[in-house]
Design brief:
Helices cover about 45% and strands about 25% of the residues. By secondary structure, it is an alpha/beta fold. The protein has one domain: Alpha-Beta Complex (Lambda Exonuclease, Chain A). β6 and β7 form a beta hairpin. Belongs to the CRISPR-associated exonuclease Cas4 family. Keywords: Antiviral defense, Exonuclease, Hydrolase, Iron, Iron-sulfur, Manganese, Metal-binding, Nuclease. Its cofactor is iron-sulfur cluster; [4Fe-4S] cluster; Mg(2+); Mn(2+).
């Protein structure tokens, strides 16, 4: 990342891994739209977005924690950060709240790992794991920040920065199942634009007119 470059929101990595075009529509073209899935996500985040602290079973939890990582050019807010252990052994443990259930792709894991990398830079210590809490099954999925996930997160951060820097929105890659869940489907128009009409056909139509 260049020194004069604006940091990316942590959510941009999740957007990029899910769909680079979605990431560009949001972070390059500054477009957004709500649907049922985003509304459910907002409801799930209501409690953690209020901030505050609490202690339960010896674990202190801080909500809506500002994060930043200068090395990767990232900034954002963690839904919750728990402090595990005692004294000098106490370490941050990020918890991200998601609607739905665990997914086949690793977009949520990358977003959580990016939070861990921010916390490591901010607190100067290793963050070995965190958790994703899914609203549909009301359970946590523990995520280990191993070398593979860390490398993937750094690659996605670099790729997202490069795309935003280029100010180029990638063409759509229509996937019925994935696109139907995206709140930007009407803005993106993936089904139509992924198979644009040939220039020759367009010219014939113009000549007929």
């Amino acid at each position: 990342m260049d020194e004069d470059e604006e940091p990316l929101p942590l959510s941009a990595l999740q957007h990029y891994l899910f769909c680079p075009r979605q990431c560009a529509l949001i972070h390059v073209e500054r477009q957004w739209a709500e649907n049922r899935f985003t509304a459910e996500g907002l409801l799930l985040h209501e409690r953690v977005d209020q901030g505050g602290k609490s202690t339960r079973d010896g674990i202190r939890t801080v909500r809506s924690v500002p994060l930043r990582c200068r090395r990767l050019g990232l900034t954002g807010v963690a839904d919750a950060v728990e402090l595990h252990g005692k004294g000098k052994d106490r370490r941050p443990y990020p918890v991200e709240y998601k609607r739905g259930r665990p997914k086949a792709h690793r977009a949520d894991e990358v977003q959580l790992c990016a939070q861990a990398l921010c916390l490591e830079e901010m607190f100067g210590g290793e963050v070995p794991e965190g958790a994703l809490f899914y609203g549909e099954n009301r359970r946590r999925t523990v995520i280990r920040f191993d070398a593979e996930l860390r490398a993937l997160t750094e690659r996605i951060a670099e790729a997202a920065h490069a795309m935003v820097r280029s100010e180029i929105t990638p063409p759509p890659d229509y996937s019925p199942r994935k696109c139907s869940q995206c709140s930007l489907i009407d803005l993106c128009q993936p089904r139509r634009l992924s198979r644009p009409p040939k220039v020759a056909n367009w010219l014939r139509c113009q000549l007929r007119d």
